[in-house]
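chain below, 682 aa
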Amino acid sequence: MSKDRKVDGNSKNKQLEQFRVDDRGKKMTTNQGLKISEDEFSLKSGVRGPTLMEDFHFREKMTHFDHERIPERIVHARGYGAHGEFELYESMEKYTKAKFLQKPGSKTPVFVRYSTVAGSKGSAETVRDVRGFATKFYTEEGNYDLVGNNIPVFFIQDAMKFPDLIHAVKPEPHNEIPQAASAHDTFWDFVANNQETAHMIMWHLSDRTIPRSFRMMEGFGVHTFRFVNENGNGHFVKFHWKPKLGVHSLVWDEAQKINGKDPDFHRKDLYKAIENGDYPEFEFGVQIIDEEDEFKFDFDILDPTKIWPEEDVPVKIIGKMTLNRNVDNVFAETEQVAFHPGSVVPGIDFTNDPLLQGRLFSYTDTQLIRLGGPNFHELPINRPVCPFHNNQRDGYSRQTINKGPVSYHNNSLASNTPETSREDEGGYVHYQEKVEGRKVRARSDSFLDHFSQATLFWNSMSTSEKEHIIDAFSFELGKCKEKSIQQQVVDMFANVNLEMAQQVAANLGITAPEHGGSSVTKSSPALSQENTRKNPDTRKVAVLITDGYSGKEVHSILTDLDSKGLQPEIVSDKLGMVTGTEGIQVEAQHTFLTADSVLFDAVYVATGDASNQKFFEKASYFVQEAFSHFKPIGATHDGVKILQENNLLNRLGVVSGDTPEIFLNEFIEAISDHRHWDRDVI
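prediction:
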């Protein structure tokens, strides 16, 4: 019997052998066998022109990529969403005719989906990764989708290379390892051999890619779009979301531990905040450049690997988004929502950014396979609030029941309806940009500077942020097996900052580059999280407490913390009621088994019976870990003993004292600072 199985297995192997292909050393072709002359650039009308529909190689490559995974999203699979509203502060009539940006005080319903990029739907949430920040505005003129990230730039300049990027960062296909991580050979091999990634990598290795919360990260439209007003005048525009709670991040060690302690950390944080009525708020800002100023900068404003420094092009705050309702069903809403950068309204148009041009094709193509056909727009979460009428019919999952015999344009049976609308009736008219040039696969020379803004980012970082970037480089490259890849990357980033590259080389035990560096001395304070808003609202405070605590005083502090907008949660050695002096009780929501310091923003040690040695030991570990992650720590009454025993008294960000009012003010100020990076951590 076993012999028969072996024969069958060999037979099957022979059948499969003809399908096994080793691509190494071969010439690239299309799926039809046509040899490819260029695989870096999409076909354009001139080097700065739009991508052309006839680019069959790009369409084949992108179509295949879009359909590689079913049913979850290929990228941004792990996501979470919420409903809300957008309120306009200031009319943008001067720049755009988009109706939802005309009347101050007007409100537009929105749906937002946050996500990681690289991991599968079941991956953890606090991995080092770019975060998606996609917003659907349900306007009276139709849906407008602002499909962005929490990083303002991207890895590549042309959509032709997007499948290559994602193939490189996804788990390596021969062993499907690692999940939701960029710390492996294929990703860094891609980086070293595609140096346009340099600027994005600096952001990717910064604290921005391990956010504390979806509520505490910025959002960016990434691309350069165009505002068009009633007179047909255009302006270049970039979009920004700025969180009212400031921009804050996790510590890397903390992020890794959270992945094990609570892999749903970010979605749980968003869900609970909305359920508690602590509605996340993001102010909406625009950067605007006059068309005549397109070429006055030392970078190409259409290059998606470049920012417009806020000191050069200020962000004008024009509105606010408030997320105030959780979804009723995650699958029906969060998973079935379909975003598309091509979903625009009159007054918002595109530019010739070659990455944006490719995305305009890719998103619809992706939805066709993921949501089962062309009628994904009829799903409740995707339906516009305004009516829609056209001659599209049938297809998978059709919900509309169209009456009448006519389903074509130019007809007499229905008086040629549905009919088109003139521009003055709200009909969408593309901006009439003059386009001319030879059909080429090329990139404008203005896109060739890959290192200046990477250096600008480095120059803008605080000392602690620079240390984190060096550590991140050392961790990520330290996971690579190939020394040659480590060396290539270090040599590449010597062009950004020589000292940084040399420190990374020393950590990896490879040859330190001797030459490199950059002449760029400019910095942008807006890029550093050290300059963010200091807002303690909704910060979670672990309150370590056991029986015998000082009843009235501790209860007063807990009440005051709550009244100041913080969220104290009781952690004890058992669940249930914890009794203090004067018979005062509080209820423990967590034990040391179900909670951990990494799940909180700060720790308050109220303690209790000093003879409870088990509690004392657990609380000491809890506090030590929080201290090592630079978090604020407070203690009163018997809790001070734990700080004394652990040599933490009078350390930076550690507050103690028995006068409730003084203690409270100092503790809240310490929490507002988020982290205390100058702390001497052993």
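The longest helix spans residues 354-370. The chain has 17 helices and 20 strands.
thats it, cya
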